Structures are given as C-alpha cells and as structure tokens.
C-alpha cells in the first residue's frame, strides 16, 4: 500500500507539472476534467480464474481488482486520424477470497515458492471465529494500447475504444487472516511470500467509454501459478473486468 501511495503522489505531481505548462486548459463537460494530454486511471472490478478445478472455489464479490495507471497519447497517422498509441505504467492489485473459508499455505511437500489450499480451521483449529481471510497479489504493470476516438476533431470530448496489451511483474503477494478464539483472543496474521505465482504475466486488454469513465477487461494469456507449484497443480489463468474513472 505504501508503494501504491508513492506512485499516486508521483503521478499527481507529474500531471500538475503538465497542467502548469498548458495554457488555460478548457474544461470538458465530463466531471470538469482538465484538457491535459494524459490519463490517470483508477480501475475497480472483479478478479476471476478460468480453467480452475472445482476444488479451487472462489467468492465472486470478495475477489476484487484495483488498478491504477498513468498513460499518455502519441498521435498516429496525423492529428485527425482518430488513432493514438497510449503507453504507460501502473500497479495492479488482485484479491482472491476462496470459498469454504480456505486460503493458501506453503506446501511442505514442494518446499519454498509453492502453495496448497487448506481450510483455515484445519490450520488454526476449529474453535475459532474467522473475521477476515483473503489472498492478494500485487504487480508492477506496463500497459500499451491503441485507442480510436470517434470525435476526430476533439479527442478530449470523444467516445473511444481501446485494444492493447499489458505486461506485469509480481512484486508482492500475501495472505491476510484474522480470527478470534477463547484461548488466544484476537489474532491477525499477514504472511508474505510468492506462493508459487508466475513472476510475470501478460494480458490482452479492452476498454470503451468517455474521457472520464470507461468499462474495461483484461484477459491473461499465461497461468497464474508456475507449473506444478500452485494448489492442485492448477493451470488456471486470470480474467479481470470492471469500471474505471479517469481524473486527468
């Protein structure tokens, strides 16, 4: 979270610098966005796994995604072609709430950098009152997309669609468990390790919307876990989707 806050502050500072260099930028009617040629995106949505075994159950509403990214446009084929290339950088945070009060733990048979899925009560005892239980993976990301603007005369007031890709690098993963028991009272545990996750991931991306609001989806092309290192030796991959706000 601290790294995320540092990134947000850095991006805001960069955009303020760009804004000072822009002469009295006019406002668009969508939320009063200033016409700065860049986007600070906040994406909210859901995180799901495809091609997963039945034993790897998930809670839909508890498995969420939050992405923040900064992107800037590069004109393609002239000022009024409608096309821009939009590279950028950001952070993605994917949370999974496993079904049946389960979570990831180190697999003793596989050793370091591995994961097995167990009931929390099988690890900490049945006489506990489970308050919080989830898994989170965090990534540095580099998005790159081609964007088409339907209003070719004013991109800042145009509906647009984007297709592209995203490259991510895992920088931290952890489980967070909180429970209460008569013998130990309130217990909070956060265990950080890689849990057999792939270090890098690749996705196809799609976006559609206005300068201030859009819908989005990511379709990841590789497995979430390294071969044979995840729970049930799964070859599951991720799909994310949701809505987003652009504040610059």
Structural descriptors:
2 helices, two-stranded antiparallel sheet, mainly beta, eight-stranded antiparallel beta barrel, 248 residues
Briefly summarize what is shown.
With 248 residues, the protein is mainly β. Helix content is 10%, strand content 50%. The chain is elongated, with a radius of gyration of 21 Å.
Mean pLDDT: 88
Order of helices and strands: HEEEEEEHEEEEEE
Structural class: mainly beta
> Treating each run of at least 4 consecutive H or I residues as one helix, how many helices?
2
State which percent range the strand residues make up: over 45%
Number of structurally distinct domains = 1
Helix content: 10-25%
Strand order of the largest sheet: 1-2-4-7-8-10-11-12
Describe the main β-sheet briefly: 8 strands, antiparallel, barrel
Rg calc: 21 Å
Distance between the termini: 22 Å
The overall strand count is 12
Structural shape: elongated
Low-confidence stretches: 14-34
């Amino acid at each position: 979270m601290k790294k995320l806050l540092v990134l947000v502050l850095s991006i805001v500072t960069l955009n303020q610098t760009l804004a000072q260099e822009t002469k009295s930028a006019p406002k668009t009617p969508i939320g009063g966005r200033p016409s700065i040629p860049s986007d600070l995106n906040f994406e909210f949505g859901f995180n799901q796994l495809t091609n997963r075994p039945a034993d790897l159950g998930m809670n839909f509403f508890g498995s969420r995604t939050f992405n923040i990214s900064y992107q800037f446009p590069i004109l393609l084929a002239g000022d009024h072609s409608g096309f821009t290339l939009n590279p950028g950088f950001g952070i993605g945070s994917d949370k999974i709430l496993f079904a049946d009060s389960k979570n990831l733990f180190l697999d003793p048979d596989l050793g370091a950098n591995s994961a097995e899925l167990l009931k929390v009560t099988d690890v900490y005892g049945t006489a506990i009152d489970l308050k919080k239980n989830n898994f989170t993976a965090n990534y540095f990301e580099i998005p790159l997309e081609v964007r088409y603007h339907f209003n070719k005369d004013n991109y800042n007031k145009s509906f647009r669609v984007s297709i592209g890709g995203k490259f991510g690098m895992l920088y931290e993963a952890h489980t967070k468990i909180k429970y209460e028991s008569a013998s130990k009272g309130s217990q909070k545990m956060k265990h950080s390790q890689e849990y057999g996750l792939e270090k890098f991931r690749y996705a196809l991306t799609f976006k559609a919307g206005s300068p201030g609001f859009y819908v989005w989806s990511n379709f990841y092309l590789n497995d979430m876990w390294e071969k044979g290192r995840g729970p049930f030796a799964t070859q599951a991959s991720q799909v994310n989707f949701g809505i987003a706000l652009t504040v610059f």
